[in-house]
Amino acid sequence: MLRWIDVLKYAKYSNPEPPQRVEKTEEEWRQQLTPAQFRVLREQATEPPYRNAYCRTYAPGVYACAGCHSILFNSTDKYHAISGWPSFKQPVSKSALRYLFDDSYNMHRIEVRCNVCGGHLGHVFPDGPEPTGLRYCINSESLIRQELPAGL
Ligand SMILES: [Zn+2]
């Protein structure tokens, strides 16, 4: 299980090796993604709080990256953080995400990206619920919710 100390180490030293890599040009991403998805995933934009697709959704399933469709989060780790964005306690695996220090807007935050395609997802904060103590605050536009495959 990931803790805040692990997140800090990943951001400071090096991130876990992704299971695979997807690399595309900016033009290819523009053709594949909707304008709203492109702004979040490729330009690090933040969507409006509350007025987004998955803020209040708790149906069972998994959440995949809207860019490369890698599975990133499980609905069982989603919780109500009253932040206005979908919030998760942990990713599906340690290698699903990469972490970067983000000092933009005069804030010291840790940015979270998809480890496979590098798409911007949101940020992670150390004020989440136990047992992880983590709050992954993620843009809905960077995610696609999928029903669980049969047998899982
Ligand atoms: Zn991705």
Automatic annotation (TrEMBL):
PROSITE patterns: MSRB (PS51790). It catalyses: L-methionyl-[protein] + [thioredoxin]-disulfide + H2O = L-methionyl-(R)-S-oxide-[protein] + [thioredoxin]-dithiol. It is an enzyme of class 1 (oxidoreductase). Keywords: Oxidoreductase. It comes from the Bacteria. Its EC number is 1.8.4.12. GO terms for biological process: protein repair; response to oxidative stress. GO terms for cellular component: cytoplasm. SUPFAM superfamilies: Mss4-like (SSF51316). The keyword Oxidoreductase applies. Residues 26-148 form the MsrB domain. InterPro entries: Met_Sox_Rdtase_MsrB (IPR028427), Met_Sox_Rdtase_MsrB_dom (IPR002579), Mss4-like_sf (IPR011057). GO terms for molecular function: peptide-methionine (R)-S-oxide reductase activity. The keyword Oxidoreductase applies. This is peptide-methionine (R)-S-oxide reductase.
